[in-house]
Amino acid sequence: MPTQDNLTGQVAIVTGASRGLGRAFAIALGEAGAAVAVTGRTAADVAETARLVEQTGARALTFVTDAADPAGAANVVARTEAELGPIDVLINNAGAAPTEIQPWLADPDEWWRVMETNVRGTFLYTRTVLPGMVERKRGRIVNIVSEAGNNPEPELSAYSTSKAALIHF
Question: For 22, which of 58, 81, 93, 106 could close a Cys bridge (C-beta 3.0–4.6 Å)?
Fold first, then answer.
């Protein structure tokens, strides 16, 4: 039975794993023994994260996809389960933050894009992995949020709003 530090035999998906925290989460999961599906929008960065995960001795799958794409989320989960096994861990890390600007000056499409990435993406992946986790009576989902969700910043209204939504989700 895997312990908290030993995830041998488990399968994880990390969204937004092409760099930063997502990359660190993916590597740490690999170091703990989990096979990791790495998602992101930039092929070279996703490949580099997968290479770093594989250096830990873990298996890695790569997916170049947008977190807010329903077909992409469904494909990531289906292919990961087919190639690695049932999903034990989902880290919803994919996120977007617009340029700091007052909301009345923000482009509505850019503002909404932050909501789509941060909230819809999290919802899509969670919705897709939960049935299997519920059926198996096990699994973990980690949603990456921010203090901005509790302490909104006026010039980051889309980001703050999306993180508050995730806190409540």
Answer: 93
